[in-house]
């Protein structure tokens, strides 16, 4: 991210968890190896994509697929990919309830050097109770808004450590006395975050360079983008908006539709139910799988399906109608699909600006 006014950004959500982003036993099964993630990042670098991002996940969802039962750690992976790549931005995810801001300040000052100023921080307010209670790091006394207040102070401390030689801070959640973290990053790392709650949008507008949005439809996506931009403007700043998108690309529309249906056919009910419960959904709602088009149940994001021309049109419609500045792409089989996307779709997207 180099500032407002540039064209639409396209990046890749790396498959650092087994199964990738399709919860199905009939879909391709990325195995969350560093070798595959390195190969994916190198493809993104060669194709001229703008960023790659890795999630942070500490516990999977079980089921027949053991979805995300095996994951790579985000900071370690990003450091290695920063060394392996040359141009693409490399964004790591940090759960603020697991890492002290003084530790993160030092990590990203190091990543800034390793990447030559290409690193970014995806700030996540941890909300999956079982993920953190298993290691004694869950605050049962924190509600949703408490977690955002904590994270605002966390980020305030981090930003000061990136710019000040000595930080003394006595706050609600953190106490630092003459805390030093040098060297500082030569270039402030890009800060992004996700969330659709009012507190999440306020946080992103006030503190982040990028906001990852979700909504049930394109008008909702546009409204969320307008809201987060309004929060940013109230603080005298700007924020870019992104959405996640799964691309099922085939030689023809019919071939892509057949693959989409096949991937959806094997959706893992147990893993998806556990995932929905982790979002805080009531049990009855989490169990209500297949209420609409069952093929969509396996996919965790919006999906575009078709040949190259159809996919190009659908992505451009998402960007335009959703009022987006960027899209983070997901593929069923990254090493097979990403080169095809780069050859048949990306040039047309770039040409459209």
Describe this structure in words.
Pfam families: Bac_luciferase. Keywords: Flavoprotein, FMN, Monooxygenase, Oxidoreductase. Its EC number is 1.14.99.46. This is Pyrimidine oxygenase. GO terms for molecular function: alkanesulfonate monooxygenase activity; uracil oxygenase activity. The protein has helices spanning 34-47, 74-84, 101-115, 129-133, 144-163, 198-207, 218-234, 253-265, 269-278, 283-286, 308-321, 334-344, 346-351, and strands spanning 9-13, 51-53, 89-95, 119-124, 167-170, 175-179, 190-194, 210-212, 240-249, 302-306, 326-330. It is α/β, with parallel strands linked by helices and 353 residues long. The chain has one domain (9-351): Luciferase-like domain (TIM Barrel). Strands 1-2-3-4-7-8-9-11 form an 8-stranded parallel β-barrel, surrounded by 8 helices. Helix 1 (34-47) runs parallel beside helix 12, helix 3 packs across helix 5 (144-163) and helix 6 packs across helix 7 (218-234). It is globular, with a radius of gyration of 20 Å. The mean pLDDT is 94.
Topology, element by element:
Layout: E1 9-13, H1 34-47, E2 51-53, H2 74-84, E3 89-95, H3 101-115, E4 119-124, H4 129-133, H5 144-163, E5 167-170, E6 175-179, E7 190-194, H6 198-207, E8 210-212, H7 218-234, E9 240-249, H8 253-265, H9 269-278, H10 283-286, E10 302-306, H11 308-321, E11 326-330, H12 334-344, H13 346-351
Parallel strand pairs: 1-2, 1-11, 2-3, 3-4, 4-7, 7-8, 8-9, 9-10, 9-11
Antiparallel strand pairs: 5-6
Helix pairs in contact: 1-2, 1-12, 2-3, 3-5, 5-6, 6-7
Protein name: Pyrimidine oxygenase
Keywords: Flavoprotein, FMN, Monooxygenase, Oxidoreductase
Pfam families: Bac_luciferase
């Amino acid at each position: 991210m180099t500032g407002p006014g540039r064209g639409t950004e396209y990046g890749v959500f790396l498959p650092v968890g087994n199964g990738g982003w399709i919860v199905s036993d009939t879909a391709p099964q990325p195995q969350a190896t560093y070798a595959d993630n390195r190969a994916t990042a190198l493809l993104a670098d060669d194709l001229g994509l703008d960023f790659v991002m890795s999630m942070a996940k500490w516990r999977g969802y079980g089921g027949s697929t053991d979805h995300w039962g095996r994951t790579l750690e985000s900071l370690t992976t990003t450091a290695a990919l920063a060394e392996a790549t040359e141009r693409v931005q490399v964004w790591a995810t940090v759960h603020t309830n697991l890492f002290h801001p003084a530790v993160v300040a030092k990590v990203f000052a190091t990543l800034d050097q390793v990447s030559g100023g290409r690193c970014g921080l995806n700030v996540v307010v941890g909300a999956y109770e079982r993920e953190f209670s298993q290691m004694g790091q869950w605050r049962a006394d924190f509600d949703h808004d408490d977690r955002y207040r904590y994270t605002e102070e966390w980020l305030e401390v981090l930003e000061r450590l990136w710019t000040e030689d000595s930080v003394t801070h006595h706050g609600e959640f953190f106490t630092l006395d003459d805390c030093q973290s040098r060297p500082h990053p030569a270039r402030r790392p890009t800060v992004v975050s996700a969330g659709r709650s009012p507190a999440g949008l306020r946080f992103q507008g006030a503190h982040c360079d990028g906001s990852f949005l979700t909504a049930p439809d394109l008008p909702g996506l546009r409204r969320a983008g307008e809201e987060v931009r309004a929060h940013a403007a109230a603080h005298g700043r700007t924020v870019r908006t992104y959405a996640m998108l799964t691309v099922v690309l085939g030689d023809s529309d019919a071939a892509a539709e057949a693959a989409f249906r096949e991937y959806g056919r094997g959706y893992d009910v147990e893993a998806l139910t556990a995932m929905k419960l982790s979002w805080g959904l009531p049990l009855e709602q989490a169990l209500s799988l297949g209420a609409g088009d069952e093929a969509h149940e396996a996919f965790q994001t919006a999906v575009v399906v078709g040949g190259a021309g159809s996919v190009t049109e659908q992505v451009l419609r998402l960007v335009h109608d959703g009022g987006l500045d960027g899209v983070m792409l997901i593929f069923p089989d990254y090493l097979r699909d990403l080169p095809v996307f780069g050859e048949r779709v990306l040039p047309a997207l770039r040409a459209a600006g």
